[in-house]
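Input for the complex:
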Amino acid sequence: MRSSKIQDVETVFHEVLDLPPEEREGYLAQACNGDASLYAEVSSLVSAANSGVSEFMDEPAVSLGLTVISQTNEQSLVGKSLAAYQVLERIGRGGMGEVYLAEDTRLGRKVALKFLSQELLHDNWAKRQLVKEAQAAAMLDHPNICPVYGIEEVNGHIFIVMQYVEGQTLQEAIRVQSIGSEDVVNVARQIAGALEEAHAHGIIHRDIKPRNIMVTPSGQVKVLDFGLAKTITPKLDKEVSEFSNSRIASNGFLPGTIAYMSPEQLRDERLDFRSDLFSLGAVLYEITEGRRLFARESEAETISAILTNTKHSYKRPNTKITQIIQKCLEKNRDERFRSASELLINLKSVSEISNNSFLFVPRSAFWNALYLLVAAALIVTVVLAIRRIRLPNVIPAAATLTADNSSPYVLAVLPVKTDKSAQNSDYLKRELPEDLIRRLAVTPGLKVRPYTSVANYEGQSIDASKIVKELQVNAILAMELFVKDGQTMLASSLFRADGSQIWSDEEVMDWPSILSIEDRIVQNVTHHLTKYQMTEEEFAEGRGTSNPEAYKQFMLGRYYWRNRDKEKLALAIDYFTKAIALDPLYAQAHAGRADSYVLLSLISYGKVPTEEAMTKARADAREAIALDPNMAEAHTSLGVVYLRYEWRWDAAELELQKAIQLNPDYAAAHFWYSHLLFIMGHPEQSLEESQKAKDLEPFYAPTVQNYCRILSRVRPVDQALACYEKVEKEHPENDQIKYAFALLKYRSNQQKEAIATFEHLYAKDKSWGAALAYARARSGNLDGARKVLSEMLELSKTQYIPPQEFAIIYAGMGDTDNAFAWLEKEYMERFAGLIYLTVEPLFQPLRSDPRYYSMVNRLNLTALNTAY
Amino acid sequence: MTASPSSEITGLLVDWGNGDQAALDQLLPLVESELRRLAHNYMRHEHPDHTLQTTALVNEAYLKLIDQKKTRWQNRAHFFGIAAQIMRRILLNYARDRHRAKRGGKSIQVSLSEASAVTLEKARELIELDEALNRLALVDERKAKVVELRYFGGLDVEETAEVLKVSTITVMRDWRFAKAWLARELDNAK
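Predicted:
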């Protein structure tokens, strides 16, 4: 809420609405008795009450809710907290259960939770089965078995907590051919190892199939799902088989997946460990041949094939491994291996005997190859052909520089080097690295320098040793756009500190594939520097949109936003709007547009009324946060709306702190936080924040100017003057800096020089006249001041001039009544300049007036903070 | 269900009515699963385009789960209050899933292909309303509660008054104010 008390607002609100419409306005004015914020609050509520926006609420949503639950088959647990587990997403669903990814908030790690499916929630048999699964798996301790951490019952939900295994199922790996015949021995050994462990504990898995086996990115196999596992004790055995019989009879529910069941399992005979060996044989067959051995059109045919079909064709028959698979697949269990251990011994002999055969692949090389295949499968459209690699110009660093592999990598992503003929090069040069930095920065164990620190290297040839030294990095990503055979190409290379190349690639750069090109770069950089494997979800999150055209519009929007002036800011808004039209859920585009509206409301850019710009900024910022709560940009924009428009200091502080916490390298958050701290009366902290902003954006004029301004408050004036002098030299065309610099000079006994600047600026643009009129009036030249005043009043008919400019002139002239009238007008317009009421030096003549304190109070500021 | 669910649930409902907040945590999943079961059965046995009689359904859940002899009539209102919270969460989760699905979440897409009871626009409306309602709760918690009960739970003014232990006039005033307040927030968000 704004400053009025909710109770007052509510009372007046009801009183007004109870009146006939024609009497409301008059009564409201009277009831508010000059309390502008109460008036604004109630009148906005009254008009909202009549707007019909809330009409949809007249129809309760309860029927919609019931329609939703009656149409969805299961109750999603996503977003729920169960004891210490925060459920994140559903990662799998089977016949009996659902598996969710969750965060164990106590231990700060990801876990997988397995629940009973909705229909079985109250089924005691299923509950017992789940407990039994947990008990079975808990007995086992083996690198190839997914460990169970525990079983919990919370709020009526019973679930198993187990290790979250990243990677893909063997089923998926076979389908996308990331695992094939050359891997079979390795996979077989790992699964057989897992079975050996289970069997040693008297546990039969009973449901060995590719879907229950995970392959991690590093190539480790993990056997999951002991849901049908059975401990061999006569009593239990009987009980379970009775249940499974009745299940088949009652609803067709068959434990296990038929295509991998052993003949004895199908005949519902008593099982022993060798049943698992048969299932493993079927799995291994599928790996070597790339197809399911027993899958048929109908269940009946599948069952028949398992029971009778003995002739299995192989691409390479009579190798040692096919003999092993055949032996697993014997119909008569007495003819199979006697145990998993015996199978393991035989598998070992395969690799030992046939070192040079296709069966043997050295472990590390094999898993590297597998990893690359898995990685490639993740990327949507990859141009696979290997092209001639053209490297950017790299001068190897001096031999004294060492790449320390043990310490974490700090990466510099350089501006894209461009060939003039390359299309889109202008904005890609900056926006591509920006986006890669944003996406890479979230990788655990990798630090990425912000773009502002590398911006200076634009257009320079790459000198690794110089960059390493200046930026304190030990890895460099360099990219180059060039034209080859009429096509725009992007070459990317990753280097170590010593200039040696870690990875490089070259792609055709066209819009439809830009997202996948970025993905590939992100994937390779994270892999080579951290071994971190991003999940598909993380990729989708990182991209922000999956629509390349929306991405293009967004990049253009950001390009114009960065190079902003009045016109370009309007263009930026257009491009962000197009991006949002193409993908309404594009959080970054909303955040970009929010920031553009925020800037649009500032003096230097604005023709748009504050209210319109800020309302739009707020809506976009909230939308962006709703879509992605972790976006520093959006929190900053919202913080600025609170700071500059809603004047809610606490709320502004929360948002800005949140933004800084999310991205300590986001200069704008520090910049605005320094403003907030400044007006709240914490100049030292404010200086600190403004310095952080300046260090992050050393070349951006407003940031540096802000630092100089705060410096002038807390340090000897010489330092501030020197600061301004430096920034003025760096930005000779910037009138804002000239104006601010002159104001400081005016206060530091360099009035002559200051007034010369005021005159100069006024001659250029009459809207800059306030300081000149103020100075003239203070020096006794009231006529000169009035002349400026009347010219500015004239100008204000055609262009927006903030009311405070006139307040400043009247303050200089000693006409406090008029000065406060204009400040009051500014208050009603909620123009942001008013928040600097206590820190703006030119308001000095007003500070002995009671109306000044009244306004300070209405703004929830404190007069004690008055700076000058 | 376990042996005598109604005595357990009735006990929890009475406890909650007497101010035991922990009882609510245990009640929610029990009531939700019953509502789901009824809704499923209902859709299975009726014509698919038949409009769901919601009050009847919640009532049926109430009659089934609660032992009438052991409760005061006011417990019915509390029960509807619980249903309101459940509805809000179900709708919100669903609306968020819709958002996420559009952003490429694979597993969610699968479950959403089964139904799209909520249009994307409605989903956004719900998410915005929920957020606005959370903000309203910071300003005035009771008003937010009134909206939850009336909008998400379908309670009438008297039932709302009973759950919140305030007069019907207060409920009507809260409802009018909250609607205007939310309308302004939602309009700002556009």
